[in-house]
Amino acid sequence: MQEKLLPRAKAALDVAKEQYNANQAIILTTPIAQQPSVLQAATEVRNAWLALQRTKILSPAEGYVSRRSVQVGAQVAPGKPLMAVVPVTGMWIDANFKETQLANMRIGQPAKITTDFYGKKSYLPWSCTGIRYGNRQCILTITGTKCQW
């Protein structure tokens, strides 16, 4: 029985060697960058890079996030508001002080503003850009102690 299988096995071995030599000839003559497995891997890397780029959402303005309606990992849809951004440039604060507090204030003097973004205290660097007189409304207005932005 084994004598009958030996010629078949030798023939299968010869066919396998021929296929191996043919594949080697193709592999050795084809540049690595043009081999199908390399091209497929490059396509997968490119697709993964594009998917990563689509996960980043850049703000149109530099500023502080004041109201966020989306969490990390959530899927978003076009047109859905994700957050509100308070721009850093063009922002100002009107502060009312008593006349007795103005004695040590100067234009250009640095100021440290305390906010309660996200329920924790944040300190923002500011400077005094001007001092002007108040009006009766400033005296009569009662301001709250908590930000409700």
UniProtKB/TrEMBL annotation:
Its localization reads: Cell envelope
UniProt xrefs under InterPro entries: EmrA/FarA_HH, MFP
Ranges for the Multidrug export protein EmrA/FarA alpha-helical hairpin domain?
Answer: 6-55
| A GO cellular-component term linked to this record | cell envelope
The organism's place on the tree of life at top rank: Bacteria
User: Could you tell me which Pfam families the record lists for this protein?
Assistant: HH_EMRA
PANTHER family named in the record: MEMBRANE FUSION SUBUNIT OF EMRAB-TOLC MULTIDRUG EFFLUX PUMP (PTHR30386), MULTIDRUG EXPORT PROTEIN EMRA-RELATED (PTHR30386:SF19)
Q: What is this protein called?
A: Multidrug resistance protein A
Q: Which organism is it from?
A: Proteus mirabilis
